[in-house]
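Internal ticket - ligand job 186, flavin mononucleotide:
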Amino acid sequence: MKTIIYAHPDKNSFCNSILQKVIQKLNDKNYDYKIINLIEEKFNPVFSYEDHLVYKKKEVLKDDQVLKYQKILKESEELIFIFPIYWFQTPAIVKGFLDRVFTEDFAFGQSWLDNIKKVTFITTAALETKEEIANDFGNPIDVNLFGVLKYCGINNNFWLHFGGIGHGEKDKGFYDNILKEVYKKI
Ligand SMILES: Cc1cc2nc3c(=O)[nH]c(=O)nc-3n(C[C@H](O)[C@H](O)[C@H](O)COP(=O)(O)O)c2cc1C
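stdout (structure tokens):
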């Protein structure tokens, strides 16, 4: 199964157009997939006192939503993340997803996520190029997120970035070409 992890608050966003294109491709190919829509599903990204106690005592988590997401991850052979770049990195809700769902002895330690054979991050940003995102303040995906995934046993990771997605000032052809590329590469 493939799992899409999506984090954008607006149905009119370009990220949502990318999501729809990915869904279209997965349907065309008859792939089995699930969508985790972090904002719509009101995922709480805050690593709480309860989370901390569980972490310290190595106990089993009691949060139903985290447990549900962990089950989905264990059933997945591929993950596709879709989110906008916020402040040269992932939105907080995606970071919180890693903090709270990729727990010890689930994602690393006694148990790995080596069932996941491929991860693709699809990101958008206002700045035009990937280099502008990756160089000025560190590299949010190739270094940081790929590093996290490798720590969890996932080594086949890709970053598909689309810049110049600000306030809809580009012509239709610009957006259509991106969506064609997404369809081809996913
Ligand atoms: C809180 C916040 C932080 C942002 N930080 C950046 C940034 O660091 N670099 C950048 O190029 N764009 C930044 N942006 C712009 C978004 O990445 C851009 O609007 C989005 O990718 C456009 O895609 P959308 O139509 O799906 O929203 C930021 C936007 C917000 C709301």
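Auto-summary: Residues 14-28 form the longest helix (15 residues). The pocket of flavin mononucleotide is lined by residues 8, 13-15, 84-88, 124-127, 165-166 (CB under 6 Å).
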